[in-house]
Amino acid sequence: MSYKILAINPGSTSTKIAIYEDERELFTTTLEHAVEELERYDNIQDQFAMRRDAVLSFLEEKAFDIKELSAVVGRGGMLPPVKTGAYEVNELMLKTLRERPYMEHASNLGAPIAYEIAKAAGVKAYIYDSVRADELIDLARISGMPDIPRMSTSHVLNTRAVAIRVAEKYGRKYNEMNFIVAHLGGGISLNVHERGRIVDIVSDDEGAFSPEGSGRVPCRLLIELCYSGRYDKKTMLKKLRGNGGLKAYLGTTDAREIERMIEKGNERAKLIYEAMAYQVAKNIGELATVVEGKVDAIILTGGIAHSKMITSWIKKRVQFIAPVEIVPGENEMESLAYGILRVLRGEEKAREYTESAASTI
Asked: Tell me, what CATH number does 123's domain have?
């Protein structure tokens, strides 16, 4: 039996959709939303009908009958902390996203749009590997400052999907193996998977700097800069995420442009670019200690994993820990669809979202 799955991934100025039949992508597109159009709405939730109608209009243009669907999956939004994997969308989840999300974020519309279309199609709606998935062990939650507990914020959707894929390549099950996965994109985050559970992470503000993020910076000097009177809060936040990292040092977030600089002999560009790889390698070593060095594979993924320069620098420093697998790309739509395909095939079970859905292990 084959299954057709609609995947929906709302972003800040676009909504990505894709239709899969089993593992085969039938079509995918990015529906762009003009800034002027978005500015008419007071908040993310007010965009619901506009984005839903855009999805339905595109499907109509493609002459795709939603009655053919076996399931619909939306990007999981800013819920209270939940476990990894699939959750069936229910009224409580929708109410939580509508009335008390952890923060305003376009992903909060993934579940509502999926639910509405699934209801019309007569099938179930799901989220998969929510951006708020949190399975950290208790030891990993201690930061050193009681006011600031550590929480799980990493690129769960893509990193978990590629870990499952690498486990299959090795002829083993994901929940039998230990992985360290580094997502190298506009932001960089890493996590460690111990027998099917993401037990610790290095978030994009705790570790390596990235194309637009400052990453881990000296705390004392950061505090002094915040109170220097030179910058306001908004500017400082942009220094940490948006105007930091490669952009701050080299004026661009485009890794390809930086590699062209290096090829032309720009030594400063090489120093900064290699420093980013150096810091990723340090983060990988840090996470290896969590599983006492028992790492089956290190996986490099995300858009920058296409770069042979970056991946070779990282691999050189960490291959003594475990074999290094390179799985480039974001893979978000595929990850959503494949996750629900496993649910439909009975290989995974979807969880029920409840008031006590917060992850407690």
From this structure: 3.30.420.40
Q: Do 277 and 300 belong to one domain?
A: yes
Q: Indicate the number of domains in the chain.
A: 2
- The pLDDT tens digits for 250-279 are 999 999 999 999 999 999 999 999 999 999
The whole-angstrom separation of Cα 93 and Cα 185 is 29
Q: Both ends of the chain: CA-CA distance in Å?
A: 35
Residue 128 has a pLDDT of 96
Give the residue from 361, 345, 360, 308 showing the smallest Cα distance to 86.
345
C-beta separation of 33 from 8 below 8 A = no
% the chain with pLDDT above 90: 84
Structure tokens at 214: 């400052």
Domain assignment present for residue 9? The answer is yes
pLDDT in tens, 141-199: 999 999 999 988 888 999 999 999 999 999 999 999 999 999 999 889 999 999 999 99
The domain of 179 spans 138-330
17-75, pLDDT tens digit by residue?
999 999 999 999 999 888 788 888 888 889 999 999 999 999 999 999 999 999 999 99
Could you tell me how many residues make up the chain? 361
What is the distance between the alpha carbons of residues 27 and 267, in angstroms, rounded to a whole number?
43
Q: Which residue has the higher pLDDT, 304 or 37?
A: 304
Q: What is the pTM of this model?
A: 0.86
CA distance 108 to 9: 10
Same domain as 170, residue 64? no
Residues 321 and 344 in one domain: no
Do 123 and 145 have their domain in common? no
Specify the DSSP class assigned to residue 31: E
DSSP helix, strand, coil percent of the chain (3-state; round to 5): 45, 20, 35
**Helix (H, G, I), strand (E, B), or coil: what is residue 287?**
helix
Q: How far is CA 247 from CA 36, 214, 225, 269, in A?
A: 27, 9, 19, 11
- Contact (CB, 8 A) for 51 and 38: no
326 within 8 A of 62, measured Cβ to Cβ: no
Same domain assignment for residues 124 and 190: no
